[in-house]
Amino acid sequence: MPRPLQWIAALGLAAAAALTSAQAQTHPGQAQLVAEVAKETGKDPSTLNSLLDGAKKQQSILDAISRPAEAKPWKDYRPIFLTDKRIDEGVAFYLEHRDLVERIGKQYGVAPEYIVAIVGVETFYGRNTGKYKVLDALVTLGLYYPPRAAFFREQLKVLLSLPDSMLGGPLDKLVGSYAGAQGWGQFMPSSIRDFGVDEDGDGHIDLHDSLPDILGSVANYFARHGWVSGGPVVARAQPDAAARPIQVKDSKPQWPLEQLMAWGYAPLQPMNPGQPSSLQTLEGPNGPEYWFTFQNFYVITKYNRSPLYALAVHQLAQAIAEGVREREATR
Fold first, then answer.
1. Average pLDDT of the chain?
2. pLDDT band at residue 12 using 50, 70 and 90 as cut-offs
3. Which GO biological process categories is it annotated with (predicted)?
4. In sequence order, which ranges of 134-241 are alpha helices (DSSP H)?
5. 17: phi > 0 → left, psi -120 to 50 → alpha, else beta; which?
6. Could you list the residue range(s) of the whole structural domain that residue 171 is in?
């Protein structure tokens, strides 16, 4: 048993070591994060620390997350994604990769035009996958952005925990969005872990350079979240003068369509009155627009929770499908 003076000295050394460790960390909370990842994965703490030491807090990332496009009204959001160029490029992409797109769509039970529309909205068919180092983005938002630190810290932890076979390249070289999403489909680390697929069978999930992996992972994401093959996404609704105001927390179907009809909203096309639905009211260029939304709309919001995003994906998908039909008709 140590003598009192020895015990005090030992305590002092321990405290000094702890202080030195805390002072040595490059980012706030780094030591605890490394300890968690090392314990859960067996990865070398010095390697993890080296990766994090090389990451930089980026003010431009903090600025970007404060002004998301989804804050715009629908009348301003829609023109960003529903352009002639994005539609034409989507049609060309679909036709160039038709066999692959349709095979994957059939395999996962997801309409192929929606798979194409996702990569069209996210990265303009792989052209704009982001300019930020993924590690910088997640360190910045996970360790320096209190409003959403819990979410992004978890994504950083997952990124550090992923096996090399899921990274698509050296971890400190990966590039993506300001939010840390990467690849053509802009998958966050937890989505790579949970929904990424090795569609080309090479032993790696590569969402940057393997088109089969990219499209297969998007389709798998939709399928795993409950996409209904052949099911509707949205339908326009027309309120009557006495229509009951509807407020929804999210896009999850809450009522049978006939209930919304009873509250004063009429579908502008024949619909199954018993199918689960919800209602979105958006600010269009000519005033409010009312949309019945269904399970497949809700699935798209699992990719991005904004109803504006989901409707943009839907309308781009419909425009691509129509463009493919028109090209075929002129052959």
1. 92
2. very low
3. peptidoglycan catabolic process
4. 134-144, 149-161, 189-195, 211-224
5. alpha
6. 31-65+130-181
Distance, CA of 38 to CA of 252 (rounded, Å): 38
Whole-number Cα distances in Å, 262 to 145, 242, 269, 318: 45, 11, 16, 29
Judge whether 306 lies within some domain.
no
* Strand order, beta sheet including 287-293: 255-256, 276-284, 287-293, 234-239, 265-267
Q: Which residues are catalytic?
A: 122
Q: Can you give the pTM of this predicted structure?
A: 0.89
pLDDT of residue 71: 76
CATH code at 154? Answer: 1.10.8.350
Long-range CB contacts for residues 242-250, cutoff 8 Å, separation at least 24 = 246/279, 246/281, 248/278, 248/279, 248/280, 250/298, 250/301, 250/305
6 in a domain, yes or no? Answer: no
Which of 197, 195, 173, 185 lies closest to 126, judged by CA?
A: 185
Domain count, the chain: 1
Asked if the structure places residue 274 within a domain, the reply is no
Single-letter amino acid code for the residue at 317: A
